[in-house]
Inverse folding.
């Protein structure tokens, strides 16, 4: 798939960055359960796809910050639309699942 919007961490990372720049360690706190390796891989892929910018500051110790791009913000809009749809249709969705389960038994 050319765009990483369906994986486990991309949406969560975007939400963490929606209010401004954050350091790697600042992302790890709300993203409990993500390993440093997976977070690094996700951030690199998101940078590659243009969803975020990586700012490396030449300091000792090194400081790196991540920031969402305008393209990344369009994914936030898509996620918000999906959440709105879910809120509007959750009852229907759950009813359809129950009806399916009853038929399957």
């Amino acid at each position: 798939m050319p765009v990483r919007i369906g994986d486990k961490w991309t949406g969560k990372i975007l939400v963490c960055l929606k209010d401004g720049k954050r350091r790697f360690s600042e992302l790890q706190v709300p993203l409990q359960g993500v390993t440093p390796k997976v977070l690094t891989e996700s951030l690199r892929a998101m940078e590659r796809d243009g969803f975020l910018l990586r700012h490396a500051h030449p300091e000792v110790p090194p400081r790196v910050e991540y920031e969402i791009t305008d393209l990344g913000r369009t994914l936030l809009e898509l996620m918000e639309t999906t959440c709105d749809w879910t809120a509007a249709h959750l009852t229907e969705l759950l009813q359809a699942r129950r009806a399916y389960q009853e038929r399957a038994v």
User: Anything to note?
Assistant: The radius of gyration is 18 Å. The first helix runs from residue 10 to 17. The chain has four helices and three strands. The chain has a mean pLDDT of 91.
